[in-house]
Predict the structure.
Amino acid sequence: MKSLAEVLSDENRALLRTITEIKPVSISALAEATGRRPGNLSRTLKTMANYGVVEMRREKRYVRPIVKAKEFRIITA
């Protein structure tokens, strides 16, 4: 549960909003828009992809992040 909480941190939810708004064509374009380093973004996005939150779609020479989930509801027992 802790790693999921990290994936859904305030910073990462802001990143999801940015991806939704600007629809970057690559991780580099997203890095430029957010001021974050491409390597850092790549690791974050890979983790989010493992949870099904984003899709990393290869298009020509680039990998394009696409948001798959925008709203989250966590139910615990």
In short: Strands lie at 54-59, 62-67. The helical segments are 2-7, 10-22, 27-34, 38-50. DSSP finds four helices and two strands in the chain.
